[in-house]
């Protein structure tokens, strides 16, 4: 049987309304959204080509009641972006997401989003050795740089 080339999967995680869907809109030209009144209820999907290899990117719903979707979408992930709303800081949802990524040794970066509302560094108590990238997803700022940092982490 012919084996498929290994393809890469990145998942965008984070709390409700932090800017995950907007982040993906800045990465992919075309995305498929499954949402209701602007809030993600199942997922968004897009893909990009990185040096001739396909990278699949999924965003998850932030609402706590859709935790099961986050778990389904996080199966077999190679890397993750955790999008934080800097005006709210880390929520318990974010802390649970980060714990899970750490215990599974998944490479990830944190996007400190909505820097236009709350500029400056996030209070990153307890988070070490993880790149924190300031972003303004609604203006496309910081997203491509942050993605490149993650892609480099995934290589090593
Ligand atoms: N001011 C500001 N607004 C932003 C930024 N990024 C996203 N938004 C806005 O925040 C709201 C939520 O953005 P989404 O991308 O839908 O957030 P989400 O994390 O996908 O939300 P859920 O899927 O409901 O969890 C929208 O109104 C965006 O336009 C940002 O950097 N600054
Ligand atoms: Mg969304």
What does this structure look like?
- 35% of the residues are buried.
- Helix content is 26%, strand content 29%.
- The protein has one domain: P-loop containing nucleotide triphosphate hydrolases (Rossmann fold), CATH 3.40.50.
- By secondary structure, it is α/β, with parallel strands linked by helices.
- It is globular and about 40 Å long.
- A hairpin with a 2-residue loop joins strand 2 and strand 3.
- Strands 2-3-4-1-5-6-7 form a seven-stranded mixed beta sheet, with helices on both faces.
- The mean pLDDT is 93.
- It has four helices and seven strands.
- The longest helix has 13 residues.
- The protein binds guanosine-5'-triphosphate and magnesium ion (MG).
Quick take:
With 156 residues, the chain is of the alpha/beta class. Helix content is 26%, strand content 29%. β5 (79-85), α3 and β6 (108-113) form a beta-alpha-beta unit.
**CATH superfamily descriptor:** P-loop containing nucleotide triphosphate hydrolases
Ligand species: guanosine-5'-triphosphate, magnesium ion
List the total number of helices.
4
The major pleated sheet works out as:
7 strands, mixed
User: What is the tally of beta strands?
Assistant: 7
Mean pLDDT rating:
93
What is the CATH topology descriptor?
Rossmann fold
Q: In one word, what is the shape?
A: globular
Spatial separation of the terminal alpha carbons: 30 Å
Radius of gyration: 15 Å
Oligomerization: single chain
Strand order of the largest sheet: 2-3-4-1-5-6-7
């Amino acid at each position: 049987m012919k084996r498929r080339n290994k393809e890469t999967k990145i998942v965008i995680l984070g709390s409700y309304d932090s800017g995950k869907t907007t982040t993906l809109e800045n990465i992919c030209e075309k995305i498929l959204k499954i949402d209701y009144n602007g809030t993600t209820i199942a997922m968004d999907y897009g893909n990009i080509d990185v040096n001739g290899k396909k990278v699949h990117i999924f965003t998850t719903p932030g609402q706590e009641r859709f935790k099961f979707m986050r778990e389904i979408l996080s199966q077999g992930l190679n890397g993750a972006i955790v999008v934080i709303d800097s005006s709210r800081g880390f929520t318990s949802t974010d802390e649970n997401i980060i714990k899970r990524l750490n215990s599974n040794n998944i490479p990830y970066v944190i996007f400190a989003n909505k820097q236009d509302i709350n500029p400056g560094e996030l209070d990153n108590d307890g988070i070490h050795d993880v790149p924190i990238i300031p972003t303004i997803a609604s203006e496309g700022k910081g997203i491509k740089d942050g993605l490149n940092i993650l892609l480099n982490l995934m290589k090593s």
